[in-house]
Design brief:
By secondary structure, the protein is α+β, with helices and mostly antiparallel strands. Among the domains are: 132 residues, Calcium-transporting ATPase, cytoplasmic transduction domain A; 107 residues, Calcium-transporting ATPase, cytoplasmic domain N (3-Layer(aba) Sandwich), CATH 3.40.1110.10; 103 residues, Calcium-transporting ATPase, cytoplasmic domain N. The chain has 17 helices and 22 strands. Strands 1, 2, 3, 4, 5, 6 and 7 form a seven-stranded antiparallel β-sheet that branches. A seven-stranded mixed β-sheet has the order 16-17-18-21-22-19-20. The chain has a four-stranded antiparallel β-sheet with strand order 8-9-10-11, with no helix packed on it. The longest helix has 35 residues. It is elongated.
């Protein structure tokens, strides 16, 4: 049987090729994917879709490594000398110190290795793939070039894909690019303006392994797996990185050499002076060696190890995994951190801090995705349900939203030895919508068991956000059968579509004076480096699904 040729060159510019050319190069099918037999053949030839890791050291080797330090070797010599001199108590004490020092380092390194492996197991992704025209859910490690993969919100991209369809598909790529804002993906081929490669962040028709789908759906063919992916290239560089000694290790080794030289010189001086004054050579030799052993600080390695272990425990409480004890000291030596973009230094989490409506400004406390916080008015806490306009704004934030807020027990904490398991809040979707979902949970309540807040209607239509309208709207049907449109978006764009305003709980015409007041408030918030969003709604009369966005999103009632 003639072997099918597949183009799997890692440096192929897949983003420049049309969908048909990619399909032809990979000998695949854009509708039915590969056959099971062909996928198995490619898996056997190319290998699993996994990142190669450095070979793990046996535990015995890890234990031996704890005793290779220069100061520890000096202590071994001091132990032997103490033993031959009859100082058995000193010899036992030094050996005990060496043993405790080695065991502490061994336990920390072994625990860190187990923790890292546990985290890898927790992060093991699955992939939805079409084979022989049927949909399968398989481990991502079994993907091969040419597989047709389906993506939706909440998925972690299992391999590098050339996208063939992208329905409002957005992918968060901060792990690769440092950019915290999700990237809108397209399916068309990109034209290369020169021979230079298009930067990673601009390859809009590719989805990269390890990134997170925050919204929309899409599908594409696998073009790279394992170490040939973009994240695989990073893993390769990490595996090839040279292990350098830390500043503390270098100083301890230098001090150990100085102590050896000083001890030898001191021994010679004592022996020479004693013999010069008529004492026996053997007696003075014993005295000189005893003095040299006493000059070696046998407690120093243990003290250093204990101090570093305490530092490791403090870092564990902040969810940081430290594989080797000396790494704690290297972090303390860092004086400058160079970064090319703010996304590299942030957690990619946004929080709503201010709400304005009816000339009233609320402050919202809390941070991250935990839905616990208070609404403050002039420094005093108020109950949100006492303000009708505030409740209306929170309802729009909750329901005109595609993000999902969930709470789960953080299993990794137990594996990392961080004490009892805790509840961890997370958002699947766009970070901006996630912040609004958390805001609504703070004001309207949230049930972590069902993963839902208070809901008052059923969504029947959605007008997704686009760069022209700069807003998003949803249509809901209430329990009484009526319809309402809920909208959010850029304040200026939203305001231009409003004819009324909710002011002090009453709906009234939106005057020119009020428009200017709203725009002034928008500029004031923007000057504080806040991302500003407007919220509006509109009761619909005779709703029809086929109506255009211009008709639906007109004559809105501005809320805040």
């Amino acid at each position: 049987m003639e072997e099918i040729q597949v183009d799997t060159r890692p440096n192929q510019k897949w983003y420049t090729l049309a969908a048909a050319d990619v399909t032809r190069a990979l000998n695949s099918d854009a509708r039915e994917g590969l056959s099971q037999s062909e996928a198995e053949r490619r898996l056997a030839k190319i290998g699993a879709n996994q990142l190669a890791a450095n070979k793990r050291k046996p535990l015995f080797t890890v234990l031996l490594d704890q005793f290779k330090d220069f100061m520890v070797l000096i202590l071994f010599v001091a132990t032997l000398i103490s033993y031959f001199l009859g100082e058995y108590l000193d010899a036992i004490t030094i050996i005990a110190i060496i043993f405790i020092n080695g065991v502490l380092g061994f336990i920390q390194e072994a625990k860190a290795e187990r923790s890292l492996q546990a985290l890898k197991d927790l992060a093991s992704p699955m992939a939805r793939v079409m084979r022989d025209g049927q949909l399968f859910l398989i481990p991502a490690s079994r993907l091969v070039p040419g597989d047709l993969v389906l993506l939706e919100a909440g998925d972690r991209v299992p391999a590098d894909l050339r996208l063939f369809s992208a329905n409002r598909l957005e992918i968060e790529e901060s792990a690769l690019t440092g950019e915290s804002v999700p990237v809108s993906k397209t399916a068309g081929a990109l034209s290369a303006v020169s021979d230079d490669a298009v930067p990673l962040g601009d390859q809009k028709n590719l989805a990269f392994m390890g990134t997170m789908v925050t919204g929309g759906t899409g599908q594409g063919l696998v073009v790279s797996t394992g170490m040939d992916t973009e994240i695989g290239k990073i893993a390769h560089m990490m595996n090839q990185a040279e292990i350098a000694e830390t500043p503390l290790q270098i100083r301890l080794e230098q001090m150990g050499k100085i102590l050896v030289v000083v001890a030898v010189l001191l021994t010679l001086v004592v022996i020479g002076a004693g013999v010069w004054h008529g004492h026996e050579l053997f007696t003075m030799f014993l005295a000189g060696v005893s003095l040299a052993v006493a000059a070696i600080p046998e407690g120093l390695p243990a003290i250093v190890t204990v101090a570093l272990a305490l530092g490791v425990q403090r870092m564990i409480r902040r969810n940081a995994i430290v594989r080797k004890l000396p790494s704690v000291e290297t972090l303390g030596c860092a004086s400058v951190i160079c970064s090319d973009k703010t996304g590299t230094l942030t957690q990619n989490k946004m929080t709503v801090t201010h709400i304005w409506h009816s000339n009233t400004t609320y402050q919202v406390t809390g941070s991250g995705y935990e839905p616990h916080g208070a609404f403050l008015l002039q420094g005093k806490q108020i109950a949100p349900d006492r303000d009708q306009a505030l409740v209306q704004l929170l309802q729009i934030a909750q329901r005109c939203n595609n993000a999902q807020l969930s709470c789960e027990e953080e299993k990794a904490r137990r594996l990392l030895g961080m004490g009892k398991a805790v509840k961890r809040w997370q958002v699947v979707g766009d970070p901006t919508e996630g912040a609004l979902k958390v805001l609504a949970a703070k004001g309207l309540g949230f049930d972590p068991e069902t993963g839902k807040g208070r809901q008052e209607g059923v969504r029947v239509d959605e007008l997704p956000f686009d760069s022209d309208r700069k807003m998003m709207s949803v249509v809901e049907q209430k329990s009484d059968g009526s319809y309402v449109l809920l909208a959010k978006g850029a304040a200026e764009a939203l305001l231009s579509r409003c004819s009324h305003i909710m002011w002090n709980g009453q709906v009234q015409p939106l005057s020119a004076t009020m428009r200017h007041r709203i725009l002034d408030q928008t500029e004031e918030m923007a000057a504080q480096a806040l991302r500003v969003l407007g919220f509006a709604y509109k009761p619909l009369q005779g709703y029809r699904r086929g109506q255009s966005a211009e008709i639906k999103e007109s004559d809105l009632i501005f809320v805040g």
